[in-house]
Design brief:
Number of helices: 8
Shape: elongated
Radius of gyration: 21 Å
Distance between the termini: 56 Å
Order of helices and strands: HHHHHHHH
Number of strands: 0
Length: 124
Protein backbone atom coordinates (compact mmCIF):
# COMPACT_ATOMS: atom_id res chain seq x y z
CA UNK A 1 0.00 0.00 0.00
CA UNK A 2 2.23 2.79 -1.26
CA UNK A 3 0.55 6.15 -0.74
CA UNK A 4 2.39 9.40 -1.26
CA UNK A 5 1.55 13.05 -0.58
CA UNK A 6 -0.40 14.96 -3.22
CA UNK A 7 1.95 17.68 -4.42
CA UNK A 8 0.80 18.44 -7.96
CA UNK A 9 -2.30 18.60 -10.14
CA UNK A 10 -1.26 15.30 -11.70
CA UNK A 11 -1.03 13.67 -8.24
CA UNK A 12 -4.43 15.16 -7.40
CA UNK A 13 -6.07 13.85 -10.58
CA UNK A 14 -4.53 10.40 -10.05
CA UNK A 15 -5.82 10.31 -6.45
CA UNK A 16 -9.33 11.30 -7.59
CA UNK A 17 -9.28 8.59 -10.23
CA UNK A 18 -8.22 5.98 -7.68
CA UNK A 19 -10.85 7.18 -5.21
CA UNK A 20 -13.48 6.71 -7.90
CA UNK A 21 -12.34 3.12 -8.45
CA UNK A 22 -12.46 2.43 -4.69
CA UNK A 23 -15.90 3.94 -3.98
CA UNK A 24 -17.53 0.55 -3.49
CA UNK A 25 -14.83 -0.69 -1.08
CA UNK A 26 -16.06 -2.07 2.24
CA UNK A 27 -14.98 -0.37 5.47
CA UNK A 28 -12.31 -2.27 7.35
CA UNK A 29 -10.86 -3.90 4.24
CA UNK A 30 -7.48 -2.93 2.78
CA UNK A 31 -9.30 -1.20 -0.09
CA UNK A 32 -11.56 0.64 2.35
CA UNK A 33 -8.58 1.81 4.37
CA UNK A 34 -6.82 2.95 1.21
CA UNK A 35 -9.94 4.90 0.26
CA UNK A 36 -10.02 6.60 3.69
CA UNK A 37 -6.37 7.65 3.42
CA UNK A 38 -6.74 8.93 -0.14
CA UNK A 39 -9.86 10.92 0.71
CA UNK A 40 -8.03 12.53 3.63
CA UNK A 41 -5.09 13.47 1.40
CA UNK A 42 -7.41 14.93 -1.25
CA UNK A 43 -9.30 16.96 1.37
CA UNK A 44 -6.05 18.46 2.64
CA UNK A 45 -4.91 19.29 -0.90
CA UNK A 46 -8.28 20.86 -1.78
CA UNK A 47 -8.35 22.94 1.41
CA UNK A 48 -4.95 24.34 0.54
CA UNK A 49 -5.39 24.84 -3.20
CA UNK A 50 -9.13 25.48 -3.56
CA UNK A 51 -10.19 27.34 -0.41
CA UNK A 52 -13.90 28.04 -0.17
CA UNK A 53 -14.98 31.43 1.01
CA UNK A 54 -17.81 31.63 3.50
CA UNK A 55 -21.05 33.25 2.35
CA UNK A 56 -21.91 36.63 3.80
CA UNK A 57 -24.45 36.82 6.63
CA UNK A 58 -27.52 37.64 4.52
CA UNK A 59 -26.76 34.90 1.99
CA UNK A 60 -26.22 32.40 4.83
CA UNK A 61 -29.56 33.38 6.39
CA UNK A 62 -31.43 33.16 3.08
CA UNK A 63 -29.86 29.79 2.33
CA UNK A 64 -30.90 28.39 5.73
CA UNK A 65 -34.41 29.84 5.27
CA UNK A 66 -34.70 28.08 1.91
CA UNK A 67 -33.30 24.83 3.30
CA UNK A 68 -35.68 24.82 6.24
CA UNK A 69 -38.76 26.21 4.47
CA UNK A 70 -38.76 29.32 6.67
CA UNK A 71 -40.26 32.70 5.89
CA UNK A 72 -39.39 36.15 7.24
CA UNK A 73 -41.95 35.75 10.07
CA UNK A 74 -40.01 32.74 11.35
CA UNK A 75 -36.99 34.99 11.96
CA UNK A 76 -38.85 37.42 14.24
CA UNK A 77 -37.81 35.60 17.47
CA UNK A 78 -34.17 35.82 16.41
CA UNK A 79 -33.98 39.24 14.75
CA UNK A 80 -36.89 41.25 16.10
CA UNK A 81 -39.94 42.86 14.56
CA UNK A 82 -40.89 41.86 11.02
CA UNK A 83 -39.82 45.21 9.58
CA UNK A 84 -36.36 44.68 11.14
CA UNK A 85 -36.18 41.21 9.56
CA UNK A 86 -36.88 42.75 6.15
CA UNK A 87 -34.25 45.46 6.77
CA UNK A 88 -31.64 42.80 7.59
CA UNK A 89 -32.58 40.66 4.57
CA UNK A 90 -32.37 43.70 2.27
CA UNK A 91 -29.00 44.69 3.80
CA UNK A 92 -30.32 47.97 5.14
CA UNK A 93 -29.60 47.00 8.76
CA UNK A 94 -26.54 45.12 10.05
CA UNK A 95 -26.87 42.19 12.41
CA UNK A 96 -26.28 42.88 16.07
CA UNK A 97 -24.31 40.51 18.29
CA UNK A 98 -27.56 39.38 19.90
CA UNK A 99 -29.08 38.58 16.48
CA UNK A 100 -25.94 36.70 15.45
CA UNK A 101 -26.01 34.62 18.62
CA UNK A 102 -29.71 33.76 18.21
CA UNK A 103 -29.40 32.88 14.51
CA UNK A 104 -26.40 30.69 15.26
CA UNK A 105 -28.10 28.95 18.18
CA UNK A 106 -31.58 28.55 16.66
CA UNK A 107 -30.76 27.90 13.00
CA UNK A 108 -27.26 26.46 13.27
CA UNK A 109 -25.78 29.03 10.89
CA UNK A 110 -22.00 29.15 11.40
CA UNK A 111 -21.07 32.21 13.44
CA UNK A 112 -18.17 32.84 11.03
CA UNK A 113 -20.68 33.44 8.23
CA UNK A 114 -22.87 35.67 10.38
CA UNK A 115 -20.02 37.95 11.43
CA UNK A 116 -18.41 38.13 7.99
CA UNK A 117 -18.68 41.60 6.50
CA UNK A 118 -20.58 41.35 3.24
CA UNK A 119 -19.22 42.78 0.00
CA UNK A 120 -22.18 45.17 -0.36
CA UNK A 121 -21.31 46.96 2.89
CA UNK A 122 -17.57 47.11 2.18
CA UNK A 123 -18.19 49.24 -0.89
CA UNK A 124 -20.44 51.65 1.00
Amino acid sequence: MEIKPIRSKADYRAALKEIESLMSAQAGTPQGERLDVLVTLVEVYERKHFPMDLPDAVEAIKFRMEQSGLGPKDLVPMIGQLNRVYEVLSRKRPLTLKMIWRLHRELGIPAESLIKQDEHRKAA
